[in-house]
Amino acid sequence: MEAKTKDLWVFVETNEDGTAKNVGIELLSPGKMMAGKQGGSLVAVVIGSGVDAAVNDAATHGADKVIVVDGPEYKQYSTDAYAIALCTLVEKYGPTSMMIGATNNGRDLGPRVSCRLNTGLTADCTALDIDEESGNVAWTRPAFGGNLMATILCPDHRPQIGTVRPGVFKKGEVTAANAEIVREDIHVDAKDIRTQLLELIQDVDGEKVDLEGAEIIVSGGRGVGGPEGFAPVKALAEVLGATVGASRAAVDAGWIAHSHQVGQTGKTVGPKLYIACGISGAIQHLAGMSGSDCIVAINKDPDAPIFDVADYGVVGNLFEVLPVLTEEIKKARA
What we know:
Distance between the termini: 63 Å
CATH topology of the largest domain: Rossmann fold
Structural class: alpha/beta
Number of domains: 2
Strand content: 15-25%
CATH class of the largest domain: Alpha Beta
CATH superfamily of the largest domain: HUPs
Helix content: 25-40%
Number of strands: 15
Radius of gyration: 21 Å
Largest sheet: 7 strands, parallel
Order of helices and strands: EHEHEHEHEEEEEEEHEHEHEHEH
């Protein structure tokens, strides 16, 4: 299809309680810059049930317009209902580009929508810009196992669509809510929704791990040596009020659940403080945490690549360093 406007859309995914997931609000920050370069407006699209909180979040984080689809059929995500609603909106308004968070739902929705609209999709992006020569979105994503970064353009079809990893961008500052709110009445018949949610299992290993929303993360890698080696990592995380992360090597070895994994095949994070314990710093792991505000690396190998990105480095055995660090923090907080 042809674009009717130069607007850039950000799909703001919602939770069942009507609040916005972080990634949609995060994408409004680069979206504002890119929409300006395209010469269009930044439009947030909110689909869900009872989504006033999400609409307010979008309106106070830079959106020029918020398009809202609110109905009971959208309370729980389903591919059919959301794809029908989003495609209907795109066909009506004709944006030139659209960003979707690379969550489980976003990775499901993006390909379905792009196929129905006969356009391209760049998945799992970690950087965004507008190509100055062509004016197209420059979608950057890891390729060849994370060994290089590929920048992809979609010059012939509209809208240009990409999914973007959570945690890559920071939320913008809260501003006055000056966005235009447009409510669209789109309802999907039950017969057109071919799946039914029978049971919701929050987390396969019985614990909720919010790496993407964490302000402090303490991660363990191959250097912890085994599942018991995460004990000092967890002890430090506890005194800091931090979330426990892990490298792919530790997860693949079965030492900790996949829900803790940071990196190209795990979660992309951007905490205020990231402490890497026994992690060498392979490029796949760096792709998931290099956006952290402050990185502290603890590794006994002085030549480990992790030190190249670390703000502070400790060359030493993590089993000696972590207990001392944990005790000192306890004393400072006593």
